[in-house]
Amino acid sequence: MLKDILTQKGLSHREAEVAELVSKGLSNKEVANQLFVTEKTVKFHLTNIYKKMAVKSRAQLIVWCVPHLDFSGSGAGAQAAAPAVAPTGNTNTGNNNGI
Asked: Which one of 1, 19, 46, 56 has the largest count of C-beta atoms within 10 Å of its C-beta?
């Protein structure tokens, strides 16, 4: 899903792969190992990605990409992987401990 969006924004297939892996928290070395390229190649792709996406840093790239990532593997989007929040209610056990 993210790769499709990034290619529509003008990134090459390889640049989209690099951007997706970086957005998942991989280092340049980890991206290089996964894609069977050198770290220098990853840095080259990142430079091109930054120009094409009009971002100035890895952090800005990640902020742009994260809403489009699918962490669940189900194709349902990142929200599917969000942990459930426990319902609020009275859980008073009689021990306030200053709370």
From this structure: 19
